[in-house]
Amino acid sequence: MTSIAVALMVAAVQAGSASEAVQRTQEKVRASLIAWVKSEGSARARAREQARKAVAELIDFDALAKATLGNKWEELKPADRKRYTAALRGAMEANYLAKMRKGTASDVARIRTEITGEEPQDGRVVVHTRVHTGEDAAAIDYVMLKGPKGWYAVDVITEGVSLAETYREQVSRILAKKSLNDVIAALDRKRKALEADLDKPLPEAPQK
After folding, report:
1. Cβ(184)–Cβ(87) under 8 Å?
2. C-alpha to C-alpha distance for 179 and 114, rounded to whole angstroms
3. CB–CB of 66/84 below 8 Å?
4. Contact, 63 vs 152, CB < 8 A?
5. Are the C-beta atoms of 29 and 108 separated by less than 8 Å?
6. CB atoms < 10 A from the CB of 135, how many?
């Protein structure tokens, strides 16, 4: 995509819209990932934290936590809701960043999010995007709601697969046989595994 095309695409996104919120956050994530790949030590840790904060600006983890537990949410004590939400957030953030960071070291700098449109749906706004990471591209839709502080995503759908539904199914399977503590432990293991992969150096692009 040429710089002129990118400029025109940015200009077409209406200020204050759900699409603008998605685009703004994706630019922050991209900048943080570039810093992350290039840095080491404490600077690398700071860059990862900035990337996580950027994701948190877009995604409503409280809404996702409630959605993934369904009726079980109402049965939980406030302290357990807080523990579960924190564990889910950690796993989802790491998963989101892992998808954005895939490819080679040079691919990260080439990440581009193209807003392809938005449409109202059941009282929400769905923002359609196409994320280009190096040679690959993926359709990612953000289901957005507007709150007092702006727009937030209450679900992220990647190539037709709902993030909320995926986690709801996984959590339900565990809760059918085990406890909430087991769910939280599984989410923590998932986060740690993803973060371990995220901390590995990206491969360099092959020489042509």
Report:
1. yes
2. 41
3. no
4. yes
5. no
6. 10
In order along its 208 residues, the chain shows pLDDT tens digits of: 443 344 334 445 677 899 999 998 888 888 887 787 777 778 877 887 888 888 888 999 999 999 999 889 999 999 999 999 999 999 988 887 777 665 444 556 677 888 999 999 999 999 999 988 767 788 999 999 998 889 999 999 999 999 999 999 999 999 999 999 999 999 999 999 988 876 666 555 445 4
| Per-residue CA distances from 89 to 11, 93, 142, 166, 204 (Å) | 32, 6, 17, 14, 30
Structure tokens at 71: 């009726």
150 phi/psi in degrees, rounded to 5 = 125, -165
Rounded Cα–Cα distance for residues 77 and 137 (Å): 42
Are the CB atoms for 170 and 182 separated by under 8 Å?
no
55 three-class SS: helix
CA dihedral 170, 171, 174, 178 (to 10 degrees): 170
Per DSSP, the three-state class of 175 is helix
Are 82 and 69 in contact, with CB atoms under 8 Å apart?
Answer: no
Which residue pairs, CB below 8 angstroms and at least 24 apart, start in 30-38?
A: 30/100, 30/108, 30/111, 30/112, 30/113, 33/97, 33/100, 33/101, 33/108, 33/111, 34/108, 34/109, 36/101, 37/101, 37/105, 37/108, 37/109, 37/202
What is the token pair recorded at 50? 């900035």
